[in-house]
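Repro case for the chain-ordering regression, as requested:
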Amino acid sequence: MSGLKSAVKRMSQLLIVLLGVSLVTFLVSHVVPGDPARMLLGQRADAQTLENLRHVMGLDKPVWLQYFDYLGGLLQGDLGISIRTQRPVLSELLTYFPATIELTLFAMGFAVISGVGLGLLSAAYRDTPIDHGTRVLAILGVSTPLFWLGLMVLLLFYKHLGWLPGSGRLDSFINPPTQITGLYVLDSILTGDWVALKSSILHLILPTICLGYIQLATIARLVRASMIEVLEQDYIKTALSNGIPRYRIIYRHALRNALIPTVTLIGLTFGELLGGAILTETIFTWPGMGKYVVDSISFLDFPAIMGFTILVATIYVIINMVVDLLYPILDPQIKG
Amino acid sequence: MEPLLKISDLHVGFLSYAGVARVLNGIDIELFPGEFLGLVGESGSGKSLTANAVLGLLPARSAVISKGSIMFEGKELIGRSEKEFQGLRGKKISMVFQEPMNALNPSYKIGKQMVEILKLHKGLSNKEAKAEAVRWLTQVHIQNPEKVVKEYPYELSGGMRQRVLLAMALSCGSQLLLADEPTTALDVTIQAQILRLMKETADQLGTSVLLITHDLAVVAQTCQRVAVMYCGNIVESGPVTKVLREPRHPYTKALLKALPNPDSETELQSIPGSVPNLLSPPAGCRFHPRCDLVKKTCRELRPQLTTVSENHYVACWREEDHV
Ligand SMILES: Nc1ncnc2c1ncn2[C@@H]1O[C@H](COP(=O)(O)OP(=O)(O)OP(=O)(O)O)[C@@H](O)[C@H]1O
Ligand code: SF4
Ligand SMILES: [Mg+2]
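-- result from build under test --
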């Protein structure tokens, strides 16, 4: 397939997904009982004021018309006005977005690096204590609820041991680094602000571990399984019989082939992490989109909720496109 | 002449929950420099295992070498460390396998895979190794070697891949090639080409070949000597002309009868009975439950290989009756 053709194909896939997501969230948010105008004005507002506000907000129009209005705005990059804060949803989301992305990226890095490492170790040392230990860690990972793990980690490292901070992105007496990307770690490196760098990394540790742990476990299990499968292949026997040392067989001949199924999982992981970020942010009072969206939900702030959903869906689709682009690099038989 | 490879009384067992499967039960094989030795026998008789034992490739956790010796160039191989074996594999002793389709790493170009072992064993620079890889592809009659080194395995046919594997196996100067059914997975016409190529290349380089096959016609075409294996034992060995024309062991005779004969109308005869369970193999001669000539001793004692004529050995109690 030519580059242009596949780019067009991918873009149209993205559009279809976004159309679907916007329709579903729109419908769901409009069948949920509750009146945003009432939420905004309070219980004692009189009928006329309510009516006026509904009209201003377009809530008196038929649902399908409201949807088309919304879509029209969406095409121009307008996600509507937040009912709660009366500010444009897009700019609000963008303020909170970097914090969430930073947390998600760190959790992803943590899960992928340690997951692949542990999976490799347990395949290379199959049926030894190393393998059994990893298995226990993995089973705990998939069976521990995130909120429970978060609370335990907070209790231990923050409350009892006092080793690590347990809330926010920075110590309160430290100024955030000059905003470039909004990712504190990156920005403080770019501006050479080592004080902020240290503080932001320390603040990332606990939420990163909690958020990444489940995915780490899943990745480790998958890498182990596919490594074991790959190590049984004929070409591994060829490599062995040609005198190639064992460590080289593992990292050069087996790992690359074993990573092909893992890459798919990593793409899916990103979506899960974004979802998990909401919970993690609540536990660690992380000022990201998660907290924003929870507040919006309790206020029935539909434009904000929908804006969030669409943003997350877009990121998800984009990440999976990137994953698709990675396959041909790993597996020469697949041509992008 | 000193044999290049001398396997004596090799016993290998597999540990399992049901007990020890005595899979190799005293193998004796001698292979001389520059010689082609055929190793034939039914599926499961232990041919691949014998080859793997020579390369130190038995599964470490389940296989046990309980007895015997494997001498290569006059030195014992049993008990060598993994590291010492790594130094031998691909450099002094090489192996090609049955299935060429998946025997090359799908993620790397042919050239890269060849260069890797050339650098490893011969200490060549990248550039020298690349030139050497091209030279070796030419040696195994691959057209357009400069193009093939840049291709991935999936772009080559089965026969081409087996040529590449042969080139890889021989490229670092191995004196011994263990070829485990190298042509079984290929088309008949390609089979003949690969065999001819193997023969030609090995003869040219003076490489000795242990050719594992269950095709007696292949043995007749390529080997000087043949060893017949049954259920973990060598039951007969000798020059191809003798063993195939005047077989002495009842199992060899049965094998030859089971061959499709283009000249006669007679039905293909399969060997009656089945290969025994190796967890509790028959006592004495392992062939006795399927043998027409069985006598009392056969059920009690294992017959050893004895000379029946020059270089011709047979392990059968009835053979001694003839003498
Ligand atoms: N890893 C293993 N664990 C247990 N038993 C094994 C193992 N590998 C081989 N065996 C047994 O050893 C015996 C000999 O196997 P081997 O592969 O050497 O046979 P073969 O003569 O090469 O047969 P084929 O012609 O089918 O390749 C078989 O009975 C097999 O069941
Ligand atoms: S030793 Fe006995 S059982 Fe075995 S092949 Fe000879 S005759 Fe048959
Ligand atoms: Mg075999």
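Ordering looks correct now. Residues B 250, 285, 287-288, 291, 293-294, 298, 303, 316-318 surround iron/sulfur cluster (ligand 2) (CB under 6 Å).
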